[in-house]
Amino acid sequence: MKINNLGLLPRLVIAIVLGILIGQFTPAPVVRLLATFNSIFGAFLGFVIPLIIVGFVAPGIAELGAGAGKLLGITTAIAYISTLISGFFAFGVSTSILPKLIHVNAQFAATNPEEALLAPFFQIEMPPLFGVMSALIIAFILGIGMAALKEKTIYNFMNEFQKIVQMVIVKVIIPLLPFHIAGIFANMTYAGEVARILSVFGKVFVIVIAMHLIIILFQFTIACLYSGKSVISALKNQIPGYLTAIGTQSSAATIPVNLQCAERNGVSKGIREFVVPLCATVHLSGSTITLTTCAIAVMMLNGMPVTLSQMAGFIFMLGVTMVAAPGVPGGAVMAALGILQSMLGFNDAQQALMIALYLAQDSFGTACNVSGDNAIAIIVDKISGSDRNLQKA
To answer: What own/partner pairs with CB < 8 Å and gap ≥ 24 does 380-384 have?
Structure first.
């Protein structure tokens, strides 16, 4: 079997193992060669991040506005609130549990983490066209403007631009990610940090999956208490959608099965066909849990302060930047790289760790996302039914 035929997660695992072996058993020049690749790839990634934000957030906002209406507003608001609840839940759990599991290496944390790593042979500067916050503002202006004007010229241009950016992600960034991860782990192994980091990986993974299951139970409990449905039946009906998401690692690919789950939950045809596809792009509770937890873990590993005010801004922005995230594995973390850099101060090595941590559980995060979509569908169906009953009265 060719390595290219393997999924992204197996390739990343292989990359981590090879990176550790290279860092442990090869001389410094070999590690510096990989560090040089990482420097070039990191610079390219920094250049592309603002383009990713504009290319995906602007059309995403425009598409939401194109079908503007009361139902759209209600669904989007519930999805965003659910995402925020998940993010702050992850913050509370992470700040309570992770300090007991993560022991910062004082010598490593006292310096800039990049100073403990071998430097590249040379660097190539690739300054982005504009900063991350500028990209977000541009995306908001373009998205709201396209929704308000309903003109097709800019809308079609932005959709084609989105396809170009997605092609860059699929054809360049995703294939080169394993090499980037291998280089980062080789350098960290050479610096003597990899054992501590790997010990954290497993602990974070278990905590994240547990939080996913808890938030799914919470979402369906609220939905069923409000609608008068059985929580146990709704959760049982969601199992096919959950397992399909684990297998496909894609919210979009799970939509057909998720629609069947919604039908078994008694959600009306019009509501489920509107809410489930919409929430596949705007509701990412599982991804928010993962990104928040992994970000806190990486910050604690590097001795960076973790404050509520700092993480609150990060969580609020996550709910926006992940709208219409690329339809590729790890799309949410790609969309979040910009705010990881601008709001939390992550460097290239820390961003690479985030990518590795996120992709290790991407299937479960997607399963959490789509399960929450059906909980929202139950709520919206109840609201819609109540409105219809009031209109008849």
So the answer is: 380/71, 380/74, 380/75, 380/78, 380/271, 380/275, 381/227, 381/266, 381/267, 381/268, 381/271, 381/272, 381/275, 382/226, 382/227, 383/74, 384/71, 384/268, 384/271
DSSP 118: P
Dihedral (C-alpha) 262, 264, 267, 269: value to the nearest 10 degrees?
Answer: 80
Cα 291 to Cα 337: distance, rounded to the nearest angstrom? 10
Per the CB < 8 A criterion, the answer to whether 176 and 12 are in contact is no
> pLDDT tens digits for 32-67?
998 899 889 888 887 887 887 788 778 767 776 554
Q: Which candidate, 274, 321, 251, places its Cα nearest to that of 67?
A: 274
3-state DSSP call for residue 249? coil
Domains and CATH numbers, the chain: 3-386 (1.10.3860)
pTM, to two decimals: 0.74
The DSSP result for 265-331, as a single string, is: TT--HHHHHHHHHHHHHH--HHHHHHHHHHHHHHHHHTT----HHHHHHHHHHHHHHTTT--SSTTH
